[in-house]
Amino acid sequence: MNRYLLYIFILFSCNSFSSENDSFAINQLKISGVDGKLVANSKINIYFDYNVNKESLIFIRPTCGYSFEICKGGGGQGSATYLGKGTDQTFIYLTKPTTVTGLQYKIVDKNTKDIIYSGQLPVSLPVKGDN
User: Which UniProt keywords apply (predicted)?
Assistant: First the structure.
C-alpha cells in the first residue's frame, strides 16, 4: 500500500467531523478514505459517511497552501441530493502537480443554498505529474 495512503487512512481514523453537539440539527460528515492514482488529471476517490436531517448537497474539494481556498486547477464532482444516513463516494481532481493540504467539505441546504455545515480535514496528498 502506498505510504501516503496509509498515512491518510490513519489520519481519517483519528478524525471525525460532526456537529453532534448541535441540538437543533443532525448534520454529520465523516471522510472515511481515499484511493485512486495520486497523479494530475485523474480521479482521486473520496469516501464519506453522512447523516443529514434535510435534503442537502455535499461538496468535497481539495485545498492547497494551508488555506480554505480550492487548489488552482483543482475541483470535484458535482453533488447529489442526500437525506438521512448513508455512505457514498465522490472524487476530486487536479490539473497540475501539487500537494493537497486539506479536504474542504460543505453540506448545503438544497432548497435555500445556505451552508449548514462545513469544515476542512488536514491531509498531505502529493499529486504527481500525469506523465
Answer: Plasmid
